[in-house]
């Protein structure tokens, strides 16, 4: 089952980040607010992802939206709230998270889409994310992220390159 193959590595990443030694974490207890966006290659073609979040200590709280189409609301989509952990070492940043989402759109008989598909209403999904990034300045970062949404109608996932803006250090 494709969704199980995504779930195990992502949960492993969250456990590793939660257990990382304190020496690898930023020692600044203040919160940092940011927004990010990215194009993505998804299981159903080109898509997009946008998120706003807050980082405090090693904790990350994110409100994200993803779509498997080039425009919001097309194909399969989700809007989710995720909790995760982050590790920062110099300018390098590693982050992972999971949460709960409202998912909707089109369902296909195959993971990569097949035929016209059928429309499905909002269902509960479980989003997963992993990020590897580089902080360029105190207010900008770039990186690569992988994401997935595990749900009962049509699980999907993708990988993309993001730009994050906000208070990052």
Question: How would you describe this structure in keywords?
Answer:
single chain; mainly beta; Porin
Detailed description of the structure:
The chain has 169 residues and is mainly β. It has a single domain (2-166), classed as Porin (Beta Barrel). Helix content is 11%, strand content 62%. It has one helix at 2-19; strands spanning 31-42, 45-56, 59-67, 77-89, 92-107, 118-137, 140-151, 156-166. The protein has an eight-stranded antiparallel β-barrel with strand order 1-2-3-4-5-6-7-8. Strand 1 (31-42) and strand 2 form a beta hairpin. It is elongated. The model is unreliable at 21-28 (pLDDT under 50).
Strand and helix map with partners:
Blueprint: H1 2-19, E1 31-42, E2 45-56, E3 59-67, E4 77-89, E5 92-107, E6 118-137, E7 140-151, E8 156-166
């Amino acid at each position: 089952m494709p969704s199980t193959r995504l779930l195990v590595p992502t949960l492993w990443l969250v456990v590793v980040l939660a257990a990382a030694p304190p020496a690898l974490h930023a020692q600044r207890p203040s919160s940092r607010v940011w927004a990010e966006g990215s194009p993505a290659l998804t299981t159903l073609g080109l898509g997009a992802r946008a998120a706003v979040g807050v980082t405090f200590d090693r904790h990350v709280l994110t409100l994200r939206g993803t779509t498997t189409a080039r425009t919001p609301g097309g194909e399969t989509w989700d809007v989710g709230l995720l909790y995760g952990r982050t590790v920062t070492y110099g300018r390098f940043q590693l982050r992972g998270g999971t949460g709960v989402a409202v998912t909707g759109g089109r369902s296909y008989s195959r993971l990569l889409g097949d035929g016209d598909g059928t429309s499905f209403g909002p269902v509960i999904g479980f989003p997963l994310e992993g990020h590897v990034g580089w902080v360029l300045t105190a207010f900008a970062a770039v990186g690569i992220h992988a994401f997935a949404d595990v749900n009962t109608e049509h699980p999907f996932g993708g990988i993309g390159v993001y730009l994050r803006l906000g208070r990052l250090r």
